[in-house]
């Protein structure tokens, strides 16, 4: 199980990692003011340009092709309808910014009503504009705007914590360093996460890792 508490059940094994979290309980204006000036300006620029439209109910059939193309380009695991079914429809939502009726950036969120927490599981962008410098710049602004609009939406829906889906401390990989830099532009709080595994589950995870070697 994942949690923010270091206290573990008896005989459980614990692994820890980190994430960034944004507190959604303050007023919107306070949350927005906490972002660095450059982040605020880019969000406003996206809103003024009105180049994209926000979609808070992106269908799975549009998300999967975009994400899997993105994943193949980066050597990541693919996503399927079966994966979504395993999560459960009530436990996730997909937001996107759309251009000419098609999503160009998607955010896939895990929802926990019991803890009032939303967790960013996937952030992916369309690969069709990789050689278009102006479009990539606008998409960068739009990605920040999508995070902000997501925060506003979840806050209005009663969620109190926006979890950025992990943060790799002392990252050496250039790609991960870039992801870390982007996440830091929202001034989220660095927070440890503790994964508590039962003895049986820890043994199963050990076998899985051995099989991957």
Instruction: Specify the biggest β-sheet.
Output: 8 strands, mixed
What is the alpha-carbon Rg in Å?
18 Å
State the end-to-end distance.
Answer: 24 Å
Mean pLDDT: 88
Specify the structural class. alpha+beta
Beta-strand content? 25-35%
Structure annotation, total helices: 7
Low-confidence stretches: none
Envelope shape: globular
The total beta strand count reads 8
Spell the H/E element sequence: EEHHEHHEEEHEHEH
Give, in spatial order, the strands making up the sheet with the most strands: 1-8-2-7-6-5-4-3
* Helicity, as a percent range: 40-55%
Structure description:
With 213 residues, the chain is α+β, with helices and mostly antiparallel strands. Helices cover 43% and strands 26% of the residues. The chain has an 8-stranded mixed β-sheet with strand order 1-8-2-7-6-5-4-3. It is globular, with a radius of gyration of 18 Å. The mean pLDDT is 88.
Task: Please specify the SSE layout and strand pairing.
Elements lengths: L1 E2 L9 E11 L4 H7 L2 H13 L3 E3 L4 H15 L6 H7 L4 E8 L2 E11 L4 E9 L7 H24 L4 E3 L10 H11 L4 E9 L1 H14 L1
Parallel strand pairs: 6-7
Antiparallel strand pairs: 1-8, 2-7, 2-8, 3-4, 4-5, 5-6
Helix pairs in contact: 2-5
Question: Which short descriptors sum up this protein?
Answer:
213 residues; single chain; alpha+beta; 7 helices; eight-stranded mixed sheet
